[in-house]
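Notebook entry, structure prediction.
Reason for the run: the old model in the group folder had no record of what sequence produced it. Starting over properly, with the input documented here first.
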Amino acid sequence: QKNPTELPGAWSRSGGEPTLQPETAESTTLGFVWTPEFLEGFSVTVDYFNIKKENLIFQPSTNEVLKDVANAGGTTGKVIEIGLFTTTFDTPDNRRIIVPNGAIFGGTIENVSFHDTRRVDVEVGTDYGADIDKTREILMATAKACENVLPDPGPGIVLAGLGGSSIDWSIRVWVNAADYWGVKDQLTRDVKYALDNADIGIPYPQMDVHIDGKVAQG
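New structure, fully documented this time:
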């Protein structure tokens, strides 16, 4: 079913969760009432509660869901506040951006930091004269040797395409979310050095121009 959230113009879809376990609780309650006969109208009441819950079931609010790094309304940053009409972001370069909610909830919201791990993709092109199998081996060894790359799932080397000037590769590794930018920088650097050491060139885009017929003399 659809339920309106606390944000104007936004809707959330809710439904059953097949892996949900029943919520259970153990509670202990003690009560004591003392009414002394020698003090007319005087009474003392003491209550004790001890409740232990397991598999607590609750529905997080929109603020709890989006208190992460998000890409929404053309802005990427940490969500600081979700107001009635606007949402406030702090960007990675420490700018504060206030975006109208209408620009956010009419489009796609990407929660960048929701998962603990992320995939780093590094794209590179090599000369057409380079041996494909050798290139794959070099890229795989470089990816495995890169610091902070997770062993499971392991690195992937994808022959992405045959471009106009190069054989295009995609090196894909998984990392903890906090290591994303550091690994992307290091892996890009390592790939460049590994290809240089193997004498495998990274070509510039190029165009061959052929002129048919005679060139007029002026």
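Summary: The chain has four helices and twelve strands.
The old model has been moved to the deprecated folder.
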